[in-house]
Amino acid sequence: MRKMILALAILYPAAAFAQGTATPAPANPAPPPTVGGKPLVQVGTKKPPAEKKSAKAAPAKPLSIAQKLQACQDIDDATKERLTCYDAVYAPQPKPKPAAAKSASECRFVKEEDERLTCFNKFVDKIPQLPR
Length: 132
Prior knowledge:
The chain is mainly α and about 130 residues long.
């Protein structure tokens, strides 16, 4: 027991002294290691950014189909522009006698433009509002 206390009494101040003395960093860090005059490849190092990128340069998060369809809702109702917006999401593929649509994606098979617009509106109105 006495030896343990004595060892702690000696080692504790030595550890505190070692933590308190730090050598200052050199002003010029050493150059990276080279082989044959070429620098070694360093994996996992990050280069500092040259400059901040503008908001336009950053790639935008792609919108989901539901968000694209809801964006079409901002266009005036019962207009050719809104139908064109819907058609950009789901390209029209008219069929002579389409079955009743069960989802917005099946509205593209309706041949008549007014009916296709009504079909899209019916399904898009049911989609809960998503954050933009």
